[in-house]
């Protein structure tokens, strides 16, 4: 590692660390939250009593939040990251193929998100073991597909980003990522992203974002945690 590079964070489940000139903390924090959620949903689908409609409804609402964040995350990559990298790798067949694979993986994940949402709705309207088993299959498949995509991105795409993007290009991508989420999502997004982070990483994120961020996080955490207990009460 070059001593002038920022120190990258390593989180549970992370496949690789892409050393380089750009701090990838935001990307790794989002990936950690996606992995955490998928494990929780898989466990909840298997543990929640079939007839507990209120909890299935809470899980369905929570899945909507998860899928919305993932949609915005993938959207900003598709619009503001992969095209910039593609333009810079016109003479690199391997890099071009990798970026097309990233886009294709996003497209394959979208139908899985829709299938899981439909499965949660079915468990509210027509609860039975067969419908729970079908939902379990969809959640498990979605988790496998997204985990494989995150690992692929961390081991290959993020190192390509580090090698390719200028400081100005990376700053533009980071700014686009911050603008991708509407204000109405912030009360969920802030505590969601920090949930389960190691204490040292959480402190680092708060310190880099400033005191207003830390205050807002403390104000929003209680409501978020109450909703989490409702949805994942059997996990």
From TrEMBL:
Residues 1-22 are annotated as: Disordered. This is Hemerythrin domain-containing protein. CDD domains: Hr-like. Residues 29-161 form the Hemerythrin-like domain. It comes from the Bacteria. It comes from Nocardioides islandensis. Residues 1-17 have a biased composition (Polar residues). Gene3D superfamilies: nmb1532 protein domain like. InterPro entries: Hemerythrin-like.
């Amino acid at each position: 590692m070059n001593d002038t590079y920022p120190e990258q964070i390593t989180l549970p489940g992370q496949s690789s660390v892409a050393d380089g000139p750009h701090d990838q903390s935001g990307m790794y924090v989002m990936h950690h939250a996606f992995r955490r959620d998928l494990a929780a949903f898989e466990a909840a689908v298997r543990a929640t009593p079939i007839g507990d409609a209120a909890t299935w409804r809470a899980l369905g609402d929570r899945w909507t939040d998860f899928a919305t964040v993932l949609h915005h995350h993938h959207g900003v990559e598709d619009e503001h990251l992969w095209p910039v990298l593609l333009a810079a790798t016109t003479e690199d067949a391997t890099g071009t193929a990798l970026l097309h694979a990233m886009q294709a993986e996003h497209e394959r994940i979208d139908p899985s998100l829709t299938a899981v949402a439909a499965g949660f709705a079915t468990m509210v309207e027509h609860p039975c073991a067969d419908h729970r088993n079908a939902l379990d299959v969809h959640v498990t498949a979605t988790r496998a597909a997204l985990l494989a995509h995150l690992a692929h991105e961390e081991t290959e795409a993020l190192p390509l980003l580090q090698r390719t993007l200028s400081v100005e290009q990376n700053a533009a991508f980071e700014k686009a990522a911050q603008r991708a989420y509407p204000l109405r999502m912030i009360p969920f997004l802030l505590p969601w992203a920090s949930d389960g982070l190691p204490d040292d990483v959480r402190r680092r994120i708060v310190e880099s974002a400033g005191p207003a961020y830390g205050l807002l996080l403390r104000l929003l955490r209680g409501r978020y945690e109450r909703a989490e207990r409702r949805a994942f009460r059997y996990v």
